[in-house]
Amino acid sequence: MDIAVYNPAGKSKATLSASDKLFHARTNTDLVYQVATSQMSNMRSVLAHTKTRAEVSGGGKKPWQQKGTGRARHGSIRSPIWVGGGVSGGPSRDVNFKKKINKAQSRAALAAVLSSRVADKTFIVAETLAVPTGKTKDAAKVITALAAALPDYTAGDRILVVLPGTVDDMPVRRATDNLPHVATIRASDLNALTLLSFPYVIATADAVAVMEKTFK
Question: How far apart are the first and last CA of the chain?
Fold first, then answer.
């Protein structure tokens, strides 16, 4: 399929022949949901942890004899019913939330999201995003000009900029670091969850070529 290519001034001057498998794929919301939730689970950090009666210190000695004291029988002061004892049924860092995602599934989900973005016109291709000066104000001018081609875009909306992942990307990365609504990513690192996290996406023509080579 053909995708319009915009120059740094935000004008469409040419078209790019892109892969139908990547940019004109069938929508599969169930697969996208499965892959996105799996990615979130794999990113989850387990911090909450409580110690069981086997993990807390002390309690090796029986508090008092079994019979004859008139008090309830106890075997350890580290029982969950004692202050300072272990916790029963509490959260544990040993819980594993990891979910396996097949490469074919993740790529199919990425293609589905990309195709949906292209159809909604929230994905555009830029001829170049060169910022030789590496200055934030110059990058902001280019991003603003390109964003004018995005439907319903308003200043401050989050934009994901997809770069080819070469050393030439460094000036653009440095220039956009101070733009709070703009994030950059290498084309080879693109995934369904990241795409879903941004309402608008701008990719360079070179980045599209890397995407086709990596995910096609």
Answer: 14
Q: Look up tokens 């599969």; give the residue.
A: 28
Phi then psi for residue 110, to 5 deg, are: -60, -45
Return the CATH class of domain 2-44+101-215: alpha beta
pLDDT in the model for residue 122: 94
The pLDDT tens digits of the residues spanning 134-179 come to 899 999 999 999 999 898 888 889 999 999 999 888 989 999 999 9
pTM confidence score: 0.82
Residue from 97, 110, 95, 88 nearest 27 by CA: 110
Q: Where are the domains of the chain?
A: 2-44+101-215, 46-96
DSSP-H helix ranges across 121-167: 136-147
